[in-house]
Specification:
By secondary structure, the chain is mainly beta. The strands form 40 sheets. The chain has a 6-stranded mixed β-sheet, covered by helices on one side. Strands 2, 5, 8, 9 and 10 form a 5-stranded mixed β-sheet that branches. The protein is flat and about 185 Å long.
Length: about 2050
């Protein structure tokens, strides 16, 4: 056998390759910043800038720059460059070349290598274009002795780039920034210059500010500025004029807190810190300096952060300010661990450690980055980053970035490495069996760390090297290795076991599988194999061909195995274990055979090599420097060739080591070191290797070296408060430890170890860092180094602290009496020698040689020097500041000593009140000079300032208090009376005695809350939701000020809530009584009420509570759970539950059950709505209609009335037997048959199921036969046939329901006969049909008769009616029914033998006519209306629809019940006009709407108050009592108030107080001048309009006295001037004068005309007497008038019509209808125009003896909710003015001439509003005439008042004259203007009518009463007599009453009546009409409102009764112009004021 040397070489190379890959990636290290760029870089465009960035790592990282968005930074020629070393250079540029994306942006530096990538912090780059700037100086001046501030003002655009470097004190003294200053000047680090202790000499000095641009280094100096000293006399309390609210510095820097206050004397400063539980004073110390207004802290630490408070105080008071100091401490960021190696699949955890000065820092804003990209927040827990399931993608660089709120960032870097992972095969090939020829590919994939190497073998040997084999390998992005073997043309010899081996330093893995190629056995060449002795040899036979039956091994001709160490495996491989060199070396042969017997053989050589083995060796212990050592490395066994080498610490021995290596033989090597040193210490390794293996053995050599100094410590000096580093470094083996100690006493004394603590740091290299060194750090320090070799080394050094002088306090004060010796002392600490100089005012050095009064002493102390300055015989000139200035080699300091020389006190000055309260006054004062003298106390005297007492009596009235210990310049005087004037004065007392009293100070104490509650609290219910609360003001001595109002609290007594609901009521300030109407309360509930008074300070105590209960009311909810059940055919049982208890609103009296049948009658003869009362919860209704559906409603009622009715419940009574059929007919239809027909029962009482026809045959009196026949319910006829002739047959019919058989009809008999007379078998009667439908009227007859149809006895022919048709059957069909088609239709038949007639009454149902609507009353928010239903259209009314809308508003509609005849509209706007109309509905349709009524709710625009009631002037203020302004029924919304002083300038500006002043009780106008005439202009606004008024008033004098008479006279005379100067007042004045002039002319003309028709004297006196009585009654009634509203008029179902005139309400409303034609028709020609008149009846006793009393006041009137105040009653306008205003308003319509009749009740209020009504309680009857004339008003215009219309004045005059002329016309020739309304009997009184304008007529109309008992002839006679009496009375009245033509009593116009006789329902009506075509005035039929009243039978003879044809139809306009249709008067039951209603125009 043979072995190939080539095979051995390949195996050796493979082994060497694996050996080289051992340190795989061990040299790699991630990048780390060596120099990270700063966070902010600023540079000038002239200088340019650069950003350095360098990093280290392995391999060396590359440095790149990116923008904030991650894009790369590129070079821009001439602008930006990136150098190779990573520096980013931004070149200088011109201003025009500025680019924001280059010069003002964010850059980031990125360092990256193959390990990972890190990114720097954001670098904000800002380039500044250099600009020229100027600086100015701002001076904050101060008083003498105080501190002035000079501030350098830098322009805003460069402020943050410029800092103040110094100030120049002219001419050449430079002041630089410092923390403590030099005593006089102090330049703060922030740039402000403080100049302390200002003197007059400082004003002559100049200062300049020097600033430097920190980028361009440009220095700019300001212009010189001088100081200015404020001149203050007396004492001024301090005020902080400048302080730094927030100071932010970095740690170890100096901080300056500034707090400058101004005051006189110069304030003293105190500093406090608020960092602990409470404020603590700041004490001066080694680092803290208290420099008056400055707190300086050197080398600040984090503990110094917090809030500080400075307090500046002097004798005048004190002031304070808070300052905050923030210390920014640097933080250190570290990631633990910084290098982490984790195996794949493991978990990595990094922690970001943030510390500051070695202490952990709390929660920070931490961000994590991986390779420069921010990680999401998942997987992080606070400062810890966890990476689970580590994969290859997770390795790299991690960064922890901490961002502070200040904006700066800190970061740390860590590297995540993947640990060694053995290879894992991810993919492998499978076994294959192929024929020779095709291509084959084998593939393996492996993963591991380091990346594994893949090799291939075939049967354990390398692959054949021929062109058919191709090996490929690559690494994926994930680090996986993929290797493949491709065989292009497989052959038999390519077969065998292929294996892929993946291997790295962590392990090895392989996969093997066979590739079988069909063919004969073939064995490839076996290379030479080298085996290692002692190991296992696996020898595989490289056989090919397939299939192979067996494989054998042979050696030396013997088949193996032949030894126990040998084994042939099933796959044919030979295994030898362990290998022995002698036994196993040789040639081995393998042969293979297949089944066919073909075989192959191949031999190979195996060589066995023994690996080397090293004998153990070691170095001697205890070797020291200078000694020698040797050792031998020997190989005990191993085959040559052998190689021996030495390594030290893993590296070859360096030449400088001095070690010798000698080969003793080929198996031994000697290592010798002749002289040991510290460098020889280490690990020495002997390496022996041969081709079999490499063996190592290591021994440790340690050379002991004693410590020696590297840096030896030396003595050091340090300046106080500075840092010092004491260096001490040593070396040795082992490394020595360094220990610092400090001597507790002298140098040779005891030492104690120095440990780490604040400001003491022990560094790792052995150095000692001492921070902020003070004197306590001074002494001897020992540094010791020891490593256990020898005794160690040590060195003692001395540290000296050089201390500059310093004082324990910055200032002190010394007070000396005048003439004594002053001792000024100061103690200074610091290093000696210390030089002390005394200075006066900070600049004048005091020298005893030049000033005989002073002497100076100085002596040394252990800590420094103590100095003393003596000043003998001091006086006031010696007072002031003195400075003790100390200096040494290291610095200087000074202390202020304030010297005050006492003198006898002067009287205090500037006495003022610092605080005024209700019972105490804090007064303060100032001494007259700065030298306060020896003031031991102050005496404050005070007394009440009562002007009523003479000054002589004041001497003994002063009360005193003393201010001392120590004496302050303020005093608190307590136990005073509130709201009282006091006089104060102050006396200073010192050693020299008391000063004179100061000037008196007059002070009025503040008011206080009232101490007493209101008295006499009472609560009275007014309604179910209202309580009237009244009370009396508290006692005067307990008010403590002006009572401004009251808080009224109320709550439900039953509620558990203890809190009251409060509402405020304004008061009058005089403490008057008060009352409040509480509304919106719960009904029938008990309330607890309290009241408290309040003034401008606050509320007083609550009064004792009182209780009251609201009145009962009707229930607000219906009964619940209403149920119904039928008990029988005529009874129903109804049950219910009471309403909820909270909605009963009282004690339930019972329940009312309302029920009615649901029937569809044509026109019910009676309203079948019934009601029954009960107190139970169930009721049985009996006596009902059988089998009828009932609507049932239930309501609960209390004592106050009925509540809400429940929803209708429908219930049906049960069936019963029916009544008898209504009728039956039996007629002969032939000789042997009879025809029977019948009508169903009128009351079927159920559903008819059948009819039973009974037949009885009668022969004479004998009944021959009886028969009953049942017929269906639909059949109402029967023809009986086959009867016997001439026999009598009797028939009757019964109807049946399911209950049973009913009553029988009447018996009808008939005898059969051969003669068949004409008979009608149909039935007649009423037929009801809706209009526009078709009706068939049957007329079925027997006997073949001739038929005729008649309508109301008029024969109908075929086609006689356009809508009728006669059928051959005799039926009449009428289509398109109209109302006119209704009537009686008769059918008559006749055949010569007999005749018959049938009548049908056809009733056509049409929509109803419009209802007649009239309004009965109105309030400010509601309108009450009634209506009468017109023609119902032959169908029941089903409901009403009410339409209403406000003027210019939208129309609203409301559905009303069919039973309703009245309704009240609520919630309306006050003083507004509404349009109202009504329509009715029946089942056919809806009626036209009624005439639109224009109704105005009560209320007017505000009135005008009296100036005395409104205004109350004072010296500097004006009290305006807003509550005195009358609102005229509409609540006020707001006021507009302005004023001005009356001067000679008419255009003086008005001062606006408020343009939206809410209504309140009063308001005070301040800031007025005493004794000045003012003009006040006010506007009051409400919903109805605006009222404007102007008033003049004069303020009182300064002392409260009345103004001088000349000013009062000017005020009175100035009023006229103001009127004529105001154009708004001038125009109405001219118009009023013109109107008055025209009125006088009209009166004269009327007066002359009335003299001709004057009545007789007796009648005139009677009329005058009546006029006087009317006036007296009017005045009495006006005093007693009240607001009343009648809410419900008794006009319901069962109410009666008023029967007498006393039954009519004295406030009745009448309706005049102008409809022409028949009012009963559904469609009449003209509209039913409605005129509304408000009639106010004042009944007189009738002469016929009617003695019924006048009507009492209505009981259901409701008191108005608004309390009428006296001012509102006095504000009502004159009647004429109102009338004039109305006339002016009506003329504003655009050409539409609308006439209105204005009626004024004779005794009504002069106001034309609807609100005031006169109530006649008791009027005398004696001497009164029978009839009382009334004055009424109509108005078609309800628009607001406008300015005068001059255009209409001429028309008014013309109409008036025409009217006066026509008054004397005769009845036959009078024009249409002359109308008279007939009285109800007796003498005809004159009816006055005066046309006030073209649009209004004023008439006196007597009461009209219908009299149906007067015949036509009597009426004519009565009319004639009235005409005669009227003519006589008019002439007498006119002649005897010359004043009757005045404006208030104008002569009435005579109107001539015309009598008509109308016929309505068979009754006569008394009609009134004018002559000619005058309109008719007719009364209603008896069914309306009046009953007949008997009168004398008088009838005028000249007028026929049928003068007018009322059935004539015409166009409405023509009818109005020509016919003047009559007007109906419908009285009602409530008063209505005229101006709220409009009516159509009356004809002229």
């Amino acid at each position: 056998m043979w072995i190939s040397s080539r095979f051995f070489v390949i195996l050796l190379l493979l082994n060497l390759d694996n050996t080289c890959s051992e340190p795989f990636e061990a040299h790699l290290r991630g990048p780390g910043f060596v120099m990270e760029p700063p966070g902010r870089v600023e540079f000038s465009n002239s200088s340019g800038g650069w950003l350095d960035c360098s990093a280290s790592g392995s391999p060396q990282p590359t440095v790149d720059w990116v923008h904030a968005d991650g894009s790369a930074v590129t070079e821009i020629h001439g602008v930006r460059r990136v150098l190779r070393n990573g520096t980013l250079v931004l070149m200088p540029f011109a201003a025009a070349a500025y680019h924001q994306d280059v010069h003002n942006t964010i850059y980031r530096c990125i360092a990256s290598n193959s390990v990972g990538r890190i990114v720097s912090r954001d670098v904000q780059v800002r380039a500044v274009v250099a600009q020229a700037y100027k600086v100015d100086v701002e001076v904050l001046s101060a008083a003498r002795g105080c501190t002035a501030i000079l501030r350098c003002v830098v322009p805003t655009f460069v402020k943050e780039l410029v800092r103040v470097v110094s100030w120049v004190h002219e001419p050449a003294i430079y002041i630089y920034p410092s923390l403590q200053g030099d005593g006089k000047f102090h330049l703060l680090p922030t740039g402000e210059l403080l100049i302390h202790n200002l003197q007059e000499s400082d004003e002559s000095q100049s200062f300049r500010c020097r600033s430097m641009h920190r980028l361009t280094r440009q220095v700019v100096v300001s212009s010189p500025t001088r100081l200015r000293i404020n001149s203050h006399r007396g004492i001024i309390s301090p005020s902080v004029v400048e302080h730094t609210a927030h100071v932010q510095v970095s740690q170890d820097e100096g901080a300056v807190l500034l707090c400058v206050a101004q005051g006189c004397p110069s304030p003293e400063y105190s500093w406090f810190t608020h960092n602990g539980a409470g404020p603590l004073p700041v004490l001066s110390g080694p680092r803290v300096r208290l420099l008056g207004p400055i707190l300086a802290i050197e080398a600040v630490t984090g503990e110094d952060s917090g809030v500080y408070k400075c307090t500046a105080g002097n004798v005048g008071g004190e002031a304070s300010a808070e300052l905050r100091l923030t210390v920014a401490t640097p933080i250190q960021v570290e990631i633990s661990p910084n290098v982490l190696s984790v195996h794949m699949g493991g978990t990595a955890e990094f922690r970001c450690l943030v510390t500051s000065n070695g202490s952990p820092v709390g929660m920070q804003n931490i961000l994590w980055y991986k390779d420069g990209r921010q990680l999401p927040s998942s997987g992080r827990v606070e400062d810890t980053l966890v990476v689970p399931r580590v994969s290859r993608e997770n390795r790299g660089m991690y960064q922890c970035v901490v961002r502070r709120p200040e904006g700066d960032t800190f970061q740390a870097t860590a590297e995540l490495q993947l640990g060694d992972a053995p290879p894992v095969l991810l993919y492998s090939f499978i076994e294959q069996t192929l024929q020779p020829g095709p291509a084959v590919s084998l593939k393996c994939s492996a993963a591991g760390n380091p990346t594994p190497q893949i090799s291939w073998t075939l049967d354990g040997f390398p692959l054949p090297s021929n062109g058919r084999f191709m090996i490929g390998q690559y690494i994926t992005v994930h680090g996986d290795v993929i290797s493949h073997v491709n065989i292009s043309h497989v052959m038999v010899e390519d077969g065998g076991e292929y294996a892929c081996i993946a291997e790295n330093r962590a392990g090895r893995v392989q996969h093997a599988a066979r590739l079988n190629i069909y063919g004969l056995p073939y064995i490839r060449l076996i290379p030479k194999v080298t085996a290692v002795s002692g190991e296992t040899l696996n020898l595989k036979c490289p056989v090919a061909g397939y299939p192979i039956e067996e494989i054998h091994w042979e050696r030396g001709g013997r088949e193996l195995p032949d030894d126990i160490r040998q084994r042939v495996q099933p796959d044919g491989s030979l295994t030898i274990s362990p290998v022995q060199k002698n036994s196993d070396s040789g040639v081995y042969t393998c042969w293979a055979r297949n089944k066919q017997g073909h075989s192959a053989r191949r031999s190979g050589e195996v060589t066995v090599i023994v690996p080397p083995s090293i004998e153990p060796f070691a170095f001697q212990e205890g070797l020291a420097e200078g000694m020698r050592t040797r050792t031998v490395c020997g190989v005990s066994r191993g085959d040559p060739p052998l190689k021996l080498i030495w390594l030290k610490d893993g590296d070859p021995l360096p030449d400088l080591l001095g070690a010798n290596v000698t080969m003793l033989d080929q198996y031994s090597s000697l290592l010798s070191i002749p002289s040991l040193s510290a460098t020889h210490s280490g690990e020495y390794t002997c390496v022996a290797k041969n081709p079999a293996a490499e063996i190592k053995y290591t021994a440790l050599l340690q050379v002991k070296v004693p410590p020696r100094w590297i840096v030896e410590p030396v003595d050091a000096n340090v300046e106080r408060n500075r840092h010092i580093m004491l260096h001490c470094q040593a070396q040795g083996v082992p490394t020595p430890s360094i220990v610092w100690k400090k001597a507790t006493g002298s140098k040779s004394g005891e030492y104690e170890e120095v440990r780490e603590r604040p400001f003491t740091k022990l560094l790792g290299n052995g150095s000692l860092l001492l921070q902020h060194v003070k004197e306590d750090r001074e002494g001897f320090y020992l540094c010791q180094a020891n490593n256990g070799i020898g005794t160690g080394i040590g060195k003692v050094i001395q540290l000296k602290v050089n201390s500059s002088p310093y004082f324990s306090s910055t200032s002190r004060s010394v007070m000396v009496k005048k003439g004594d010796t002053a001792l000024l002392q100061c103690a200074v600490s610091g290093d000696k020698p210390i030089n002390i100089v005394w200075m006066r005012s900070g600049k004048n050095t005091l020298n005893p040689s030049t000033n005989y009064k002073i002497s100076v002493k100085q002596e040394a102390t252990p800590d420094g020097v103590s100095a003393e300055l003596q000043i003998r015989t001091v006086d006031a000139t010696d007072s002031g500041p003195y400075f003790c200035r100390a200096s040494n080699l290291y610095g200087n300091d000074q202390q202020l000593v304030q010297l005050q020389v006492q003198e006898p006190p002067l009287p205090p000055s500037v006495l003022e009140a610092a605080m005024i309260s209700s019972r105490s006054v804090n007064i303060k004062w100032q001494p007259k000079t700065l030298g306060t003298g020896d003031v031991t106390k102050y005496i404050v005297e005070f007394r009440e300032a009562d002007h009523s007492l003479p000054p002589a009596l004041f001497v003994d009235q002063w009360q005193q208090i003393e201010v001392k210990d120590p004496p302050h310049f303020n005093a608190m005087i307590e136990n005073l009376k509130p709201a009282t004037r006091y006089a104060f004065r102050v006396i200073a007392e010192g050693s020299a005695g008391r000063s004179a009293p100061s000037q008196e100070l007059i002070v009025r104490t503040e008011p206080q809350r009232p101490a007493g509650p209101p008295l006499s609290l009472s609560a009275r219910p007014l309604s179910s939701t209202e309580l009237l609360i009244s009370w009396v003001a508290p006692l005067p001595e307990l008010r403590h000020g002006d009572i401004q109002g009251y808080n009224v609290g109320y709550k439900l007594s039953s509620s558990g809530n203890t809190a009251y609901n409060f509402t405020s009521v304004s008061g009058d300030g005089d403490g008057g009584n008060g009352e409040l109407l509480l509304s919106g309360l719960a009904k029938f509930a008990r309330y607890t009420v309290v009241v408290q008074a309040f003034n401008q300070v606050g509320p007083g105590p609550l009064s004792e509570p009182t209780a009251a209960q609201t009145m009962e009311d009707v229930p607000s909810r219906p009964p619940e759970d209403v149920r119904c059940a039928a008990l029988s055919s005529q009874s129903l049982q109804v049950s219910w539950q009471p309403p909820p208890i909270y909605h009963t609103n009282g004690l339930l009296q019972g329940y009312k059950l309302i029920f009615e049948p649901i029937i569809d009658d044509i026109q019910p003869s009676k309203d079948e709505v019934e009601s029954r009362k009960t107190t139970a919860l169930t009721m049985v209704l009996t006596g009902l209609r059988k089998y009828t559906n009932y609507s049932i409603q239930v309501l609960a009622h209390t004592r106050m009335g009925d509540g809400v009715v429940s929803k209708p419940l429908f219930c049906h009574s049960e069936e019963d037997v029916p009544e008898a059929p209504a009728d039956i007919k039996v007629v002969s239809s032939s000789s042997q048959s009879l025809y029977i027909s019948w009508l169903p029962p009128n009351e079927p009482n159920g559903v008819i199921t059948k009819y039973s026809l009974y037949t009885r045959v009668v022969n004479g009196r004998e009944e021959l036969n009886n028969e009953k026949r049942s017929l269906p319910s639909q059949q109402a006829y029967y023809e009986a046939k086959g009867l016997h002739p001439h026999m009598e047959y009797q028939f009757w019919v019964t109807a049946s329901t399911r209950v049973g058989e009913g009553k029988s009809s009447r018996v009808s008999s008939q005898i059969t006969t051969n003669r068949i007379p004409a008979r009608i078998i149909s039935f007649g009667g009423p037929v009801v049909r809706p209009w526009r439908s078709t009706v068939t009227l049957p007329c079925t007859a027997v006997g073949k008769p001739k038929r005729e149809w008649f309508k109301s006895d008029v024969a109908l022919r075929q086609g006689g009616l356009h809508n009728s048709q006669l059928l051959d059957s005799g039926d009449l069909i009428i289509s398109s029914l109209q109302l006119a088609d209704g009537g009686n239709y008769s059918c008559q038949v006749d055949n010569g033998i007999g005749t018959d007639r049938l009548t049908h009454t056809l009733i056509v149902q049409v929509p109803p006519t419009a209802p007649v609507l009239y309004v009965t009353s109105a309030t400010s928010s509601s309108i009450l209306m009634h209506w009468k239903c017109g023609f119902t259209g032959n169908a029941p009314i089903t409901g009403y629809t009410l339409f209403y809308r406000r003027a210019n508003g939208n129309t609203d509609e409301m559905q009303l019940s069919r039973h309703a005849s009245s309704h009240e509209l609520k919630g309306l706007m006050c003083g507004s006009t509404y349009q109202i109309h009504l329509s009715a509905q029946n089942k056919v349709g809806t009626s036209p709407t009624s005439t639109i009524l224009h109704v105005r709710t009560q209320g007017q625009s505000p009135g005008h108050p009296a100036s005395t009631a409104l205004l109350a002037p004072n010296s500097t203020s004006l009290l305006v009592r807003l509550h005195s302004w009358p609102d005229n029924g509409c609540p006020l919304l707001y006021f507009v108030l302005q004023y001005r002083a009356v001067t000679d300038d008419p255009d003086a500006e008005w001062v606006l107080v408020s343009n939206a002043l809410k209504p309140q009780r009063r308001i005070v106008v301040n800031n007025l001048q005493p004794s000045t005439l003012y003009q006040l202009r006010m506007e009051a606004h409400n919903v109805a309009g605006i009222s404007q008024a102007e008033f003049n008033f004069v303020t009182l004098t300064k002392d409260g006295d009345p103004p001088p008479p000349e000013i009062m006279h000017r005020g009175r005379s100035g009023q006229t001037t103001v009127i004529f100067a105001n154009i708004n007042l001038l125009i109405p004045t001219i118009a009023a004068v013109s109107g008055m002039f025209c009125t006088i002319i009209m009166i004269i003309v009327c007066y002359r005309h009335m003299l001709k028709n004057a009545p007789p004297l007796a009648e005139q006196s009677q009329i005058q007497k009546e006029s006087l009585e009317n006036r007296a009654n009017s005045e009495a009634a006006q005093r007693e008038r009240y607001y009343a509203t009648i809410h419900k008029v008794s006009m319901q179902n069962n109410d009666k019509i008023p029967e007498t005139s006393e039954d009519i309400s004295p406030y009745a409303t009448f309706q005049l209808s102008e409809a022409g034609g028949n009012m009963s028709q559904p469609h009449h020609g003209g509209p039913a125009n409605t005129l509304l008149h408000s009639f106010m009846y004042h009944e007189r006793a009738l002469a016929e003896g009617c003695s019924s009393p006048p009507p009492a006041a209505s009981k259901n009137r409701r008191r108005h909710s608004r309390k009428t105040e006296p001012e509102s009653e006095e504000s009502e306008s004159d009647q004429d003015q109102l009338t004039s205003s109305r006339t002016e308003s009506s003329n504003q319509h655009e050409g539409k001439i609308k006439h209105s009749i204005i009626y004024h009740g004779a005794q009504s209020s002069t106001s034309s509003d609807l609100s005031p009504m006169s109530e006649q309680k008791s009027l005398p009857r004696r001497g009164r005439s029978r009839y009382h004339h009334q004055q009424y008003q109509f108005s078609t215009n309800t628009t607001p008042r406008h300015h005068n219309s001059n255009k209409m004045n001429n028309n008014t005059t013309s109409n008036t004259n025409t009217t006066a002329t026509n008054t004397t016309a005769t009845p036959s020739t009078s024009s249409n203007s002359n109308k008279i309304l007939s009285p109800r009997g007796g003498n005809l009184k004159s009816i006055s009518s005066t046309f006030k304008s073209q649009d209004s007529i004023q008439c006196h109309i007597p009461t009209l009463v219908k009299s149906p008992s007067i015949s036509t002839q009597q009426q004519k006679q009565f009319h004639k007599q009235q005409l005669q009496n009227s003519s006589t009375n008019n002439s007498q009245h006119s002649s005897s009453n010359p004043n009757s033509s005045s404006l208030k009593q104008q002569q009435p116009l005579l109107i001539t009546p015309k009598l008509h006789q109308l016929e309505a329902n068979g009754q006569e009506l008394l009609g009134l009409d004018g002559i000619g075509n005058s309109p008719l005035v007719a009364c209603m039929p008896p069914s309306s409102q009046f009953r007949p009243i008997p009168h004398k039978s008088i009838m005028p003879a000249h007028e026929p009764p049928h003068h007018h044809n009322h059935s004539q139809q015409s166009h409405p306009h023509q009818q109005q112009q020509q016919q003047h249709p009559g007007t109906l008067l419908n009285p009602s039951t409530a008063m209505l004021s005229s101006k709220f209603f409009t009516a159509p125009t009356l004809p002229k």
